[in-house]
Please model this.
Amino acid sequence: MLDVLLYLFEHYVDEGRDAPRDEALLKSMLEDAGFQQADIHKAFVWLEDLMRQRNGSEDANSATGGSFRVFSREECLRLNRDCRGYLLALERGGLVDATAREKIIERALALDLEELDLDRFKLIIMIVLANQPGEEHLQDWLEALIFDNLAGRVH
Model:
């Protein structure tokens, strides 16, 4: 499913092209590109949930500025130390606020993977932040940071 999200990001968001408005057509194009229907469906659900969050429905558990985040046992199992440390570094550096941090964690856990490596976690961060209002200025920086490290590793 993450590969479907990356494909969509690379071919539409990154290149500034508009995705087809017809969901059935887009899904068909993804199938033609070699993705499985189940992965395509999961990716669309994941994106719909992200858009729902973006459009104003704040997570009830979102932290406020100056908060201290303690990861649950499940989060620690699924987001390894590198992922958690990277997210903390972004937050300390002022690139991610507490609300974005919670969305990133929620979207990472929504992938339903047993453990997420740092490279794929960076992709989730990029996708979430690219969909945050007012964070467009981070787009180039995030792409350089993530794609320089991932060149040739995902797909």
User: Anything to note?
Assistant: Residues 2-150 form one domain.
